[in-house]
Amino acid sequence: MPHQCVVCSTFYDDGAQEILKGCPCGGKLFFYIKKSNIEKAKKITEEAKLTEIDKKQIEQDVRELAGEEDNETPVVLDLEAVKVIKPGKYELDLLHLFKGEPLIFKLEEGKYIVDLIQSFKNLKKEG
Amino acid sequence: MINLVKQFINKVLKNIFKKKKHLKLGIYGAPNSGKTTLANKICQDWLGEDMGNVSNIAHETREVQIKEQINIKHKGKELSFNLVDTPGIATKIDYEDFIKVGLKQSEAKKRAKEATKGVIDSIKWLDDMDAVVITLDATKDPYSQVNITIVGNLQARKIPVLIVANKIDLKKANIKKIEAAFPQYDVIGISAKYGKNVDKFYEALFVITS
Question: What's phi and psi for B70, nearest 5 deg?
Fold first, then answer.
Protein backbone atom coordinates (compact mmCIF):
# COMPACT_ATOMS: atom_id res chain seq x y z
CA MET A 1 0.00 0.00 0.00
CA PRO A 2 1.73 3.21 -1.09
CA HIS A 3 1.73 6.50 0.68
CA GLN A 4 1.83 9.82 -1.14
CA CYS A 5 3.48 12.90 0.33
CA VAL A 6 0.92 15.72 0.21
CA VAL A 7 3.58 18.39 -0.36
CA CYS A 8 5.68 16.93 -3.23
CA SER A 9 3.38 14.06 -4.37
CA THR A 10 6.18 11.44 -4.13
CA PHE A 11 4.98 7.87 -3.49
CA TYR A 12 6.52 5.67 -0.79
CA ASP A 13 6.00 1.98 -0.04
CA ASP A 14 4.80 0.59 3.28
CA GLY A 15 7.30 0.97 6.09
CA ALA A 16 9.55 3.40 4.18
CA GLN A 17 11.83 5.47 6.41
CA GLU A 18 10.47 8.65 4.82
CA ILE A 19 6.99 7.91 6.17
CA LEU A 20 8.30 7.35 9.66
CA LYS A 21 10.62 10.36 9.71
CA GLY A 22 9.00 12.71 7.21
CA CYS A 23 9.61 13.28 3.51
CA PRO A 24 12.97 14.88 2.45
CA CYS A 25 10.88 17.81 1.10
CA GLY A 26 9.76 18.51 4.67
CA GLY A 27 6.25 17.09 4.25
CA LYS A 28 4.85 15.23 7.23
CA LEU A 29 1.38 14.38 5.96
CA PHE A 30 0.85 11.39 3.68
CA PHE A 31 -2.22 10.11 1.89
CA TYR A 32 -2.66 6.36 2.17
CA ILE A 33 -3.81 4.90 -1.14
CA LYS A 34 -4.66 1.38 -2.30
CA LYS A 35 -2.40 0.20 -5.16
CA SER A 36 -5.42 -0.22 -7.42
CA ASN A 37 -6.31 3.44 -6.92
CA ILE A 38 -2.90 5.02 -7.56
CA GLU A 39 -3.82 6.25 -11.04
CA LYS A 40 -7.03 7.76 -9.71
CA ALA A 41 -5.12 9.44 -6.88
CA LYS A 42 -2.52 10.83 -9.28
CA LYS A 43 -5.31 12.30 -11.40
CA ILE A 44 -7.00 13.88 -8.38
CA THR A 45 -3.68 15.42 -7.27
CA GLU A 46 -2.99 16.81 -10.74
CA GLU A 47 -6.47 18.22 -11.19
CA ALA A 48 -6.64 19.78 -7.74
CA LYS A 49 -3.63 22.06 -8.47
CA LEU A 50 -2.99 22.75 -4.82
CA THR A 51 -0.89 25.77 -3.94
CA GLU A 52 1.76 25.63 -1.22
CA ILE A 53 -0.65 27.46 1.09
CA ASP A 54 -3.40 24.91 0.32
CA LYS A 55 -1.04 22.03 1.14
CA LYS A 56 -0.04 23.60 4.45
CA GLN A 57 -3.69 24.24 5.26
CA ILE A 58 -4.67 20.64 4.44
CA GLU A 59 -1.88 19.34 6.65
CA GLN A 60 -3.00 21.55 9.53
CA ASP A 61 -6.68 20.58 9.06
CA VAL A 62 -5.92 16.86 8.96
CA ARG A 63 -3.77 17.18 12.09
CA GLU A 64 -6.71 18.83 13.81
CA LEU A 65 -9.10 16.11 12.56
CA ALA A 66 -6.73 13.58 14.07
CA GLY A 67 -6.43 15.54 17.30
CA GLU A 68 -2.69 15.73 16.68
CA GLU A 69 -1.33 19.16 17.48
CA ASP A 70 2.37 18.25 17.36
CA ASN A 71 3.64 19.36 13.94
CA GLU A 72 6.64 17.02 13.88
CA THR A 73 5.05 13.56 13.94
CA PRO A 74 4.22 12.31 10.44
CA VAL A 75 0.51 11.63 9.90
CA VAL A 76 -1.14 9.43 7.27
CA LEU A 77 -4.73 9.98 6.13
CA ASP A 78 -6.63 7.06 4.59
CA LEU A 79 -7.91 8.57 1.35
CA GLU A 80 -10.33 5.69 0.90
CA ALA A 81 -12.39 6.98 3.82
CA VAL A 82 -11.89 10.74 3.88
CA LYS A 83 -10.80 12.66 0.79
CA VAL A 84 -9.54 16.17 1.25
CA ILE A 85 -9.88 17.68 -2.21
CA LYS A 86 -8.95 21.22 -1.24
CA PRO A 87 -8.96 23.02 2.10
CA GLY A 88 -12.60 23.02 3.23
CA LYS A 89 -13.75 20.45 0.64
CA TYR A 90 -14.22 16.94 1.98
CA GLU A 91 -15.70 13.74 0.64
CA LEU A 92 -16.57 10.98 3.06
CA ASP A 93 -17.05 7.32 2.24
CA LEU A 94 -19.73 6.27 4.71
CA LEU A 95 -19.39 2.53 4.11
CA HIS A 96 -15.71 2.75 4.94
CA LEU A 97 -16.36 4.92 8.00
CA PHE A 98 -19.05 2.58 9.32
CA LYS A 99 -16.62 -0.35 9.13
CA GLY A 100 -14.76 1.34 11.96
CA GLU A 101 -11.32 1.02 10.41
CA PRO A 102 -8.68 3.60 11.36
CA LEU A 103 -8.88 6.73 9.22
CA ILE A 104 -5.88 8.61 10.33
CA PHE A 105 -2.67 6.94 11.29
CA LYS A 106 -0.03 8.53 13.44
CA LEU A 107 3.38 7.07 12.86
CA GLU A 108 6.02 6.56 15.48
CA GLU A 109 9.29 4.64 15.56
CA GLY A 110 8.55 0.97 16.13
CA LYS A 111 4.81 1.57 16.28
CA TYR A 112 3.14 1.52 12.95
CA ILE A 113 -0.54 2.31 13.21
CA VAL A 114 -2.46 4.13 15.90
CA ASP A 115 -6.06 5.12 15.37
CA LEU A 116 -6.07 8.47 17.10
CA ILE A 117 -9.76 9.11 17.15
CA GLN A 118 -10.36 5.68 18.65
CA SER A 119 -7.62 6.31 21.23
CA PHE A 120 -9.19 9.60 22.23
CA LYS A 121 -12.53 7.91 22.60
CA ASN A 122 -10.97 5.29 24.89
CA LEU A 123 -9.32 8.00 26.96
CA LYS A 124 -12.63 9.81 27.23
CA LYS A 125 -14.30 6.64 28.49
CA GLU A 126 -11.63 6.01 31.08
CA GLY A 127 -11.77 9.59 32.28
CA MET B 1 -35.54 -26.82 43.71
CA ILE B 2 -31.89 -25.88 43.06
CA ASN B 3 -32.89 -24.78 39.56
CA LEU B 4 -35.60 -22.57 40.94
CA VAL B 5 -33.11 -20.93 43.32
CA LYS B 6 -30.66 -20.43 40.45
CA GLN B 7 -33.37 -18.88 38.30
CA PHE B 8 -34.36 -16.57 41.14
CA ILE B 9 -30.74 -15.45 41.71
CA ASN B 10 -30.24 -14.89 37.98
CA LYS B 11 -33.38 -12.81 37.80
CA VAL B 12 -32.32 -10.67 40.78
CA LEU B 13 -28.81 -10.18 39.35
CA LYS B 14 -30.22 -9.33 35.92
CA ASN B 15 -32.50 -6.70 37.45
CA ILE B 16 -29.64 -5.14 39.41
CA PHE B 17 -27.55 -4.76 36.25
CA LYS B 18 -30.53 -3.54 34.28
CA LYS B 19 -31.10 -0.72 36.73
CA LYS B 20 -27.46 0.28 36.83
CA LYS B 21 -27.19 0.62 33.08
CA HIS B 22 -28.04 3.96 31.55
CA LEU B 23 -29.86 3.48 28.32
CA LYS B 24 -28.29 5.59 25.58
CA LEU B 25 -30.68 6.94 22.98
CA GLY B 26 -28.98 8.47 19.94
CA ILE B 27 -30.51 10.84 17.42
CA TYR B 28 -28.99 10.34 13.98
CA GLY B 29 -29.67 11.69 10.52
CA ALA B 30 -28.59 13.89 7.65
CA PRO B 31 -27.73 17.57 8.25
CA ASN B 32 -30.78 19.81 8.71
CA SER B 33 -33.20 16.93 9.23
CA GLY B 34 -34.12 18.36 12.64
CA LYS B 35 -32.07 16.28 15.08
CA THR B 36 -31.36 19.12 17.49
CA THR B 37 -34.89 20.52 17.12
CA LEU B 38 -36.19 17.11 18.23
CA ALA B 39 -33.59 16.86 21.03
CA ASN B 40 -34.64 20.33 22.20
CA LYS B 41 -38.31 19.33 22.15
CA ILE B 42 -37.57 16.24 24.29
CA CYS B 43 -35.40 18.26 26.70
CA GLN B 44 -37.96 21.07 26.94
CA ASP B 45 -40.78 18.62 27.62
CA TRP B 46 -39.00 16.66 30.35
CA LEU B 47 -36.18 18.88 31.68
CA GLY B 48 -37.45 22.35 30.83
CA GLU B 49 -34.28 23.35 28.99
CA ASP B 50 -32.77 23.27 25.50
CA MET B 51 -30.08 20.87 24.32
CA GLY B 52 -28.35 22.91 21.61
CA ASN B 53 -28.54 25.65 19.01
CA VAL B 54 -30.47 25.18 15.81
CA SER B 55 -29.80 26.95 12.52
CA ASN B 56 -30.92 26.98 8.90
CA ILE B 57 -27.28 26.56 7.88
CA ALA B 58 -26.34 22.89 7.72
CA HIS B 59 -23.90 21.33 10.22
CA GLU B 60 -24.86 23.56 13.15
CA THR B 61 -24.19 20.68 15.57
CA ARG B 62 -20.57 19.68 15.07
CA GLU B 63 -19.91 17.95 18.37
CA VAL B 64 -21.75 15.07 20.01
CA GLN B 65 -24.03 16.46 22.76
CA ILE B 66 -25.30 14.46 25.72
CA LYS B 67 -28.11 15.15 28.20
CA GLU B 68 -28.15 12.70 31.05
CA GLN B 69 -31.06 11.23 32.98
CA ILE B 70 -34.12 12.19 31.00
CA ASN B 71 -37.22 10.62 32.55
CA ILE B 72 -40.24 10.24 30.33
CA LYS B 73 -43.64 9.39 31.77
CA HIS B 74 -46.34 8.23 29.48
CA LYS B 75 -49.60 6.43 30.30
CA GLY B 76 -48.35 5.25 33.68
CA LYS B 77 -45.02 3.96 32.31
CA GLU B 78 -41.61 5.47 32.90
CA LEU B 79 -38.52 5.52 30.73
CA SER B 80 -35.13 6.85 31.75
CA PHE B 81 -32.29 7.45 29.29
CA ASN B 82 -29.29 9.55 28.31
CA LEU B 83 -30.02 11.48 25.14
CA VAL B 84 -27.22 11.79 22.58
CA ASP B 85 -27.62 14.40 19.83
CA THR B 86 -25.14 13.82 16.99
CA PRO B 87 -23.69 15.93 14.17
CA GLY B 88 -25.39 15.35 10.81
CA ILE B 89 -23.94 12.61 8.62
CA ALA B 90 -23.01 13.68 5.09
CA THR B 91 -20.95 12.30 2.22
CA LYS B 92 -19.75 15.66 0.94
CA ILE B 93 -18.87 18.76 2.90
CA ASP B 94 -17.91 21.83 0.90
CA TYR B 95 -17.10 25.20 2.43
CA GLU B 96 -18.47 26.94 -0.67
CA ASP B 97 -21.97 25.83 0.33
CA PHE B 98 -21.53 27.80 3.56
CA ILE B 99 -20.24 30.87 1.71
CA LYS B 100 -23.41 30.81 -0.42
CA VAL B 101 -25.50 31.25 2.74
CA GLY B 102 -23.46 34.18 3.98
CA LEU B 103 -20.48 32.82 5.91
CA LYS B 104 -17.03 34.36 5.47
CA GLN B 105 -14.42 32.16 3.76
CA SER B 106 -12.42 31.49 6.93
CA GLU B 107 -15.58 30.68 8.93
CA ALA B 108 -16.84 28.45 6.12
CA LYS B 109 -13.61 26.43 5.95
CA LYS B 110 -13.55 26.04 9.72
CA ARG B 111 -17.16 24.88 9.70
CA ALA B 112 -16.36 22.34 6.95
CA LYS B 113 -13.44 20.92 8.92
CA GLU B 114 -15.43 20.68 12.14
CA ALA B 115 -18.41 19.16 10.30
CA THR B 116 -16.12 16.48 8.83
CA LYS B 117 -14.82 15.61 12.27
CA GLY B 118 -18.44 15.61 13.44
CA VAL B 119 -19.42 12.96 10.88
CA ILE B 120 -16.51 10.75 11.96
CA ASP B 121 -17.43 11.21 15.64
CA SER B 122 -21.13 10.45 15.06
CA ILE B 123 -20.23 7.16 13.42
CA LYS B 124 -17.71 6.27 16.13
CA TRP B 125 -20.37 6.82 18.81
CA LEU B 126 -22.82 4.45 17.15
CA ASP B 127 -21.36 1.45 18.98
CA ASP B 128 -22.36 3.00 22.32
CA MET B 129 -26.03 3.35 21.45
CA ASP B 130 -28.77 1.12 22.86
CA ALA B 131 -31.45 2.55 20.58
CA VAL B 132 -31.45 5.09 17.79
CA VAL B 133 -33.96 7.60 16.46
CA ILE B 134 -33.28 8.45 12.82
CA THR B 135 -34.70 11.79 11.77
CA LEU B 136 -35.60 12.27 8.13
CA ASP B 137 -36.70 15.49 6.51
CA ALA B 138 -40.15 14.43 5.22
CA THR B 139 -39.99 17.01 2.42
CA LYS B 140 -36.95 15.34 0.89
CA ASP B 141 -36.26 12.12 -1.00
CA PRO B 142 -35.66 9.39 1.61
CA TYR B 143 -33.54 7.27 -0.74
CA SER B 144 -30.25 9.02 -0.01
CA GLN B 145 -26.94 7.30 0.59
CA VAL B 146 -26.83 8.73 4.11
CA ASN B 147 -30.24 7.35 5.15
CA ILE B 148 -29.77 3.96 3.54
CA THR B 149 -26.28 3.54 5.06
CA ILE B 150 -27.36 4.55 8.57
CA VAL B 151 -30.44 2.29 8.55
CA GLY B 152 -28.51 -0.64 7.05
CA ASN B 153 -25.72 -0.38 9.59
CA LEU B 154 -28.04 -0.17 12.56
CA GLN B 155 -29.86 -3.22 11.28
CA ALA B 156 -26.56 -5.10 10.99
CA ARG B 157 -25.62 -4.09 14.54
CA LYS B 158 -29.06 -5.15 15.80
CA ILE B 159 -29.66 -1.73 17.38
CA PRO B 160 -33.38 -0.90 17.68
CA VAL B 161 -34.43 1.91 15.35
CA LEU B 162 -37.30 4.37 15.26
CA ILE B 163 -37.69 6.40 12.10
CA VAL B 164 -39.06 9.90 12.49
CA ALA B 165 -40.41 11.73 9.45
CA ASN B 166 -39.88 15.29 10.59
CA LYS B 167 -41.22 18.62 9.29
CA ILE B 168 -44.76 17.33 8.61
CA ASP B 169 -45.97 20.90 9.16
CA LEU B 170 -44.57 21.71 5.72
CA LYS B 171 -46.78 21.27 2.64
CA LYS B 172 -44.17 19.30 0.72
CA ALA B 173 -43.89 16.64 3.45
CA ASN B 174 -44.63 13.10 2.26
CA ILE B 175 -44.72 10.46 5.01
CA LYS B 176 -45.99 7.75 2.64
CA LYS B 177 -42.79 7.99 0.62
CA ILE B 178 -40.73 7.45 3.77
CA GLU B 179 -42.89 4.54 4.88
CA ALA B 180 -42.42 2.98 1.45
CA ALA B 181 -38.64 3.42 1.64
CA PHE B 182 -38.32 1.69 5.02
CA PRO B 183 -41.22 -0.80 5.19
CA GLN B 184 -39.62 -2.89 7.94
CA TYR B 185 -39.71 0.03 10.43
CA ASP B 186 -42.36 2.06 12.18
CA VAL B 187 -42.36 5.59 10.83
CA ILE B 188 -43.72 8.36 13.04
CA GLY B 189 -44.55 11.64 11.33
CA ILE B 190 -43.91 14.64 13.57
CA SER B 191 -43.14 18.32 13.58
CA ALA B 192 -40.42 18.68 16.20
CA LYS B 193 -40.56 22.46 15.76
CA TYR B 194 -44.27 22.78 16.57
CA GLY B 195 -44.61 19.70 18.77
CA LYS B 196 -47.08 18.03 16.41
CA ASN B 197 -47.58 14.30 17.05
CA VAL B 198 -44.77 14.08 19.64
CA ASP B 199 -47.08 12.05 21.90
CA LYS B 200 -47.00 9.27 19.33
CA PHE B 201 -43.22 9.64 19.18
CA TYR B 202 -42.91 9.14 22.96
CA GLU B 203 -45.22 6.15 22.78
CA ALA B 204 -43.01 4.62 20.07
CA LEU B 205 -39.89 5.24 22.20
CA PHE B 206 -41.31 2.89 24.86
CA VAL B 207 -41.80 0.23 22.21
CA ILE B 208 -38.26 0.33 20.77
CA THR B 209 -36.55 0.47 24.17
CA SER B 210 -38.61 -2.29 25.83
Answer: -95, 125
Ordered structural domains, chain B, with CATH: 22-209 (3.40.50.300)
pLDDT interval class at A112 (50, 70, 90): very low
Q: What are phi and psi of B25, to 5 degrees?
A: -110, 115
CB B67 within 8 A of CB B38: no
Q: pTM of the full predicted structure?
A: 0.82
Contacts of A103 in chain B (CB under 8 A): 120
Asked if A65 and B113 come within 8 Å (Cβ–Cβ), the reply is yes
In the chain, the amino acid numbered A28 is: K
Q: Give the whole-angstrom CA distance, residue A12 versus residue A30.
A: 9
Nearest to A2 by CA among A54, A80, A117, A67: A80
- Judged by CB atoms closer than 8 Å, whether chains meet at B92 and A87 is answered as no
Surface-to-core class of residue B51, CB atoms within 10 Å of its CB (0-12 exposed, 13-18 middle, 19+ buried): buried
Instruction: Considering only CA atoms, give the Rg of chain A.
Output: 14
> Of A82, A86, A56, which Cα lies nearest the Cα of A71?
A56
- As a whole number of angstroms, the distance between CA A84 and CA A77 comes to 9
State the pLDDT at residue B195: 96
Of how many residues is chain B composed? 210
A106 SS3 class: strand
Complex ipTM more than 0.90, yes or no: no
